[in-house]
Structures
1.
Amino acid sequence: MDQFYLAMNMFRRRKFDKCADICTQLLEKNPYDQAVWTLKMRSLTAQVMVDDIEADEDGIADEFLDTEMIAQAARPGTSLRTAAPTAAPGLRPRANTGRAVSGMVRPRTQTGCGAGSLEAALRTPRSALSARPITSFTARSVRLGTASMITQPDGPFIQVSRLNLAKYAAIPGVAKPLFQYIFYHENDVRNALDLAVEATKASQYKDWWWKVAIGKCYSMLGINRDAEQQLRSALKHAPNIETYLRLSALYSKLDQPLNSLEICTSALQVFPNEVTLLTEIARVFEALNNIPASVKYYRDILQEEATNVEAIACIAVNYFYSDQPEVALRFYRRLLQMGLYNAELFNNIALCCYYAQHYDMIVTCFERALSLAMGETVADVWFNIAHVAIGVGDLKMATQCLRLSLAADPNHGAAYNNLAVLVHRKGEVQQALSYFQTAQAVSSYLFEPFYNYALVSKKVGDLQSSYSAVQKSLKVYPNHVQSQELLSSLRKYFENI
Amino acid sequence: MAVPLYTLQLNQTFIPGLVTIGKYDGSHSCITAATNGDKVLVHTPHIRDKELSVLNVNQPVTAICAGRLRPDDNRDVLLIGTQTTLLAYDVENNTDLFYKEVPDGVNAIVVGRLGQWECPLAVVGGNCSLQGFDWRGDDPFWTVTGDRVRSLALLDIDHDGENELIVGSDDFELRIFKGDALIYEITETEAVTSLSVLESSKFSYSLTNGTVGVYDKQTRLWRVKSKNAAVCLWTYDIDGDGSAELITGWSNGKVDARNHRTGEVVFRDVLGHGVSGIVVGDYAMTGKPQLIVCSIRGEVRGYDSSCVTKDHVQRQGDTVRDLFSKKQMLLTELKNYTADPTGSGIPANTRLLTEINVKADHQVTFGGHVEVALSTNNSTVVRVATVFAEGIFEGETFVVHPQPQHVTNHLTIPLVPPNDTPLDIHIRAFVGPNAFKTEYHVFEVTRQLPRFSMYALASPITKTIPDSYATFQLSFLCNQLEAWQMQNFLAAVGSSNEERGGEGPSGADWSASLTCLRDGSPLHIRFRGTTITVATPHISLAADIVQSLAVYLNLDRVESVAEFPALFTEVEENLNRLEELKSNATRMAAAVADTANLIRSLIVRAEDARLLGHMKDLRECYVQLQQVNGDLVRGHSVRVANHRELLATLHSLNAVIQHSSKLRSE
């Protein structure tokens, strides 16, 4: 059999290792065979290439050192930073980034608006699951860029720095695989950009693919405005879902969510009912804390694609927090039917069962969850078990569960808070106060530790610290009525002095 | 002094000239101004607790303007221009309408309807270029103009229901465009810094030298000059008489309102600091717009017609003081006449003769000059002469003041007009019986320099015909051409036909060889049959001659063929270089972004190390940071050089386009 045909066949059957091996042998015989060379590039790229549209994540540095956002304090509802809290924090808990809990953890849900400064962001506890990259650039190369680290036996396949990019850019069949190879396999964005610039020139600025490629490189390098120009000009040539999504992500990065929505809506005119576009819209609405609109789009997604995990999970969470655990349970069961089998799911089902009063199911579900849980999820499961234990009145068990939760994750602020309340019930005020303080330190996005601390210290008579704590509580949750009442009573007291 | 309706202290720095006002939500006016640190402030008095919001631009703001750009929306759009970009931003919704790269820079923006375009356009004036963007970010309007644009205004100057564009630029010109065709061109004495539209076909202008004036179409109604620079002009009916006044804000903090017909001051006030901008908007929510003046330190004062009436008494005092000073002046003058009735006398028949000639003299000036010779017809002497003309010298007057021993009844004044424009020169000659008097008679004469005054006849030896030329078809008589030359050239005056090198005015063949005194380049005009050929190495000169001929002969349409091989290769080179510079710029921008990423991660790592108290790592990070920073700074200087070259190339390309477009006439 012709070796090249075999290699092609291997490539088509997604046996990329073998394809690359055969290509290597062929290239030894004839190093100038462009077809083989290209095939090898493609097979090497295919081994590491992932869909990177959603893999983008803002790093700590991007959030605090860049001022690409135009408005520093935009009108609420028009910015991702000043998103209006429609759901009260008391009713729907916040994730450790300070944003309302979503049904699904995605790269961009980690980016928060909680910490106000670089120092605060760095002091926020980071663990293997909640760690944020330093910059979006490092985020990507850590996550995806492992390929270039593998040392190849006789030097790298292509020495990118020695390539005459302008020459290859002019050959359409080679240029695109070469770009993908440099971009995905070598992770060398600058050279990829050089190649793309040459290639778009060679195509007389008429090929949308190259414009998207340049846009990709620019947004990777953080030159967002140039990326916008390239993507917009690419859209003029050919409307493409990927381009729309990248443009939308770019506007989210520039903190212009309404523009993101507009882009996606106009894209829906071209690609009606496209699920990825609907998902993007739903996510932006969720980031804007406009949960009803978000759920509406998730429902639209389910009309198109009944097995969309993200949509089901988000709708379920929304039902759960709007006091309809039975309905949420149905959605979670649907996920279970689809073959999802993990600790989070069982944990959620257990909670739904508890609120829907299917008490028989709770223990088995939590057991399943515990057996599947890894790392910090264990802490969450124990925290929820403690919650159930408090509900049934077994405070001793609740205390034990909370301690187990803290053993699994020493930065679990909510667990500290609950433990402090239980300790306070026993009458150990000083210990309770110190637990509250710990909770405040590890999770400043929760208002409960502040309010509880203020309440307890007021009772003890430490009005000054009560006053400062209740102010912090109101900063996190400005409409909390009890905090406001506490503050006004303290004010009255201070005015009397 | 007027009492303002209200005064606000915003305690922010406002950059002069970069202040505008917009109704971003469709109903509430918001003062918007550029401030330090490449930021833009939006003052929203209708929002409690959050009156000032800040927009990051991240590049120095060069122009700012708010206006209704969307045809179907009554909300204003904020346009922010920087050296390379234009951003149209919806303040209310925190969204971009568009973000455009404008390599020519953005020096002035004006929003409104232009010509026959249906959508409102944001017209942007840059380095030699004018671009009009609609709300989608497309640019249906594009043209070139001379030099850097400083100010723009939209006005229906010919009452045809469509707005024309008035452009003031650095080359002292006011140009008025109808669509993309230039209809009027007015030469001023300095760079035009701002323009404002008055009623009907009147508009006001201000110059860098502190002149403020009003034009009605092409005729100047009045002008005044101050030693301070006018920062901004606006139009507002401050005295409530139904016709708008011209409001001027000066760099020393003065604000005055002048009647637009006479220039008479009807209102004035002084702010504590220099004026940064004047806008008109309803800030007191009274339902009627007020005049709002902002200072550079963020003081905002509002006035309306109720502020003017209060200073009637003040004005009486002013008038009395004016009359007193006038009286004083007249008294001094009278004293002059009475003190020495005979001493300064000169014969009654003394006349001042002026003669204007071209002198290819290399001693006084490089290349040669235009010589104005003054002489008296008797023994009286010309002691001093002051020449007043626009745009020839630094400033506006030129004084020739010889040593007393060299004073005769003859005085020559060398002039070197830098441009080919017709000039009015006003000469004041001080004539007296001898050079040692303290009092002289002043003779005033006004002479006109023809347009192409700096061209002398070429001597037969150096006569060369340049290989670049413009040629076009004309059917007219030779003597018309002759008359045109008489009117527009100094050189032909008094020279005979033989010298002109032609076969006589009656023949169908006529030619003239001239030399430019500025750089010695030849100019050859030749008319044969119905074809006229203008041969010169400078395309701008050929363009000027074509335009001048077209105006003189009242031609509606001239189509010419141009052959400028040197220029053509230059343009080709420029285009190639532009390509190269642009790709260099992208490459360097990518490199900078790459380095910036490194810096960011280093800063975060250093901060992390600091919080952990790990001083060794901290030190390492900072050492690296310093190195990378050094690289970045070096790279920046390369980028700046690249950018400057890019701008120069664009400038020369735009100039070529402008001159070539002038080679035809419509």
Note: Chain A touches chain B through 46 residues (CB under 8 Å).
2.
Amino acid sequence: MNDLAIELRGLTKTYGTGALAFQALKGIDLQVKTGEFMMLVGPSGSGKTTLLSILGCVLSPTEGEAVLFGEKLHGRKESELPDLRLSYIGFIFQGNNLIPALSVEDNVAFPLELRGASRKQALIEARDVLSAVGLSDKMKRHPNDLSGGQRQRVAVARAVAGRPPLILADEPTASLDAHTGQQVTELLKKLSTERGHTVVVVTHDNRIFHFADRTVHMEDGLLVPAPAQP
Amino acid sequence: MKAAQPIRTRPGFFRRWLTLGTIGVRMMFFDRLKLLGTLFGVVFAVVLGNFQVGTFLALLFKNRMFVENAVADVWITPPGTRQFQGGSPLNDAQLNRARSTPGVAWAEPLVLQTAQLKLPNGGSEPVSLVGTRAPRFAGGPWNLVAGETEALLQPDAVFFEDSEREKFGGLNLGSVRELSGHHVRAVGFTWGLLPFAPAFAFAEQTLAREILKQPAGSHTFLMVGAAPGVSPVELRERLQRELPDTRVMTRDEYLSEILTYILTATQIGMSFGLSTFMGLLVGLITVALSMFSSVVDNMRQFGTIKAIGATTGDLGRLLFVQAIVYGVVGSLVGLGLMAAMVQGIRNAQLTPILPNLAVGITFTLMIGVCLLASVLALVRLRKLEPAMVFR
């Protein structure tokens, strides 16, 4: 596999047209190495989520080049994107976005089955990962029976299950208290190191910056140097 | 640690349906209130639709029961006949011409006319008196619940309708009544022979003619049996050539003609058809609204499933399986209710008929309706952008 997990060149994204056009990304150049744990930080409206959406193959760039593990994302048909997501990406969402109707183990097993694992294989892998995140006693429960921290740990398990090369996390600690947020990030860091994932975390939470191999700052649709510490 | 590798495996056709279908069913059963609401819509449509169709079939059966049960292969009727109802009488010359037509094994007259049954309380009730000819008794009686057909050979013997016994003043075997001024005796009972006209009563033809004061050479219908090896259609053609001033129909043609008459010349077909259609429409709207609102309520979940890597086709699989489950479960419950209702209201007057074919049609139709509803929900999901999960 290519040594670079992500390579962005002159990436722009414009929403709307004409007088209503809004440029969310104004020419991003970025490289992320395979296995790197990177945090993308910046104020609201700086373009972090738009960039994450393009990396997550749920949004297409307007201009520029985006390459994920050697696969070009730009110029792809929309119908090709779900397959790329299944092949390369595990997601952790801000609100965990677990499916309430499914048990914890089924929530983790579902993406694995979507990737072709048999039901049995998927459950074995799901139970393994859930044990790794410390939820072996909650596998049969439903998400609504769990605390916010536990749910986010299930979300981490779902993202890493099956070992997709890239994990994208959108504000994973936003709805958690400081201590739980630290625990979840630490868990993500540990698992990604053990399992060889590349991780991009979008966050506002400066209490977890120290987990990152590298922190990239965004402002007004551009990457900017880190602000000077007071 | 070796870097994680892209995952290239994908499920096969059945595995994909099973995975998405299982999730769809779990989502259905998780929201019990919505599940019950949707099932109510399907059950309502099944019960209403089947009740209407069943009642229509019962009405049809009432109109066609005589032709269905009589043993004639071919019927010679007055010109313009479209249902089982007498018109201008047929005569002996026509009967004799029918008997001499090649291919006719037998031909018999049938007499049918309304008679008045005098009740013990002084009132009277009409009956449709059938004059059936011994020893063949091709024109009934049938559906006997008491007595033997041969009892009609006894003097003044008449079969009455069992379900009308109370109405006829507590009629029992051996009861004597006055029928259009003639004393008759009840020698047997039939069950369920209630056309739209008054209930059928049966007497041997000679007695029936005396009661109805109908001359020996005047007949309501002529019934014909085909000789071995002669098809009813062929015989009908020959008889029609011989008797151009009558209408000749095979048994099947007569049954079909009655159906056509009911559907086209009366409002019954339109009325029942419309209410059946309304039942299906209500079912479709309920299921569609319920599935649509379920999709809207769970938009974030569907967005997540799509973001993880499911395609719109996968979401279609999820919804289609839900639709099939709604259709099957709703049809089962609805048909069960319908069967219980049919048993509960079983009487000789008008019990809806639920043929086996209705079961198959119900399942097919309701699954179709639910699938159509799911397509409407899928149209909404097709526009769902997975990027919404990051907003």
Note: Residues 32-69 of chain B form the longest helix (38 residues).
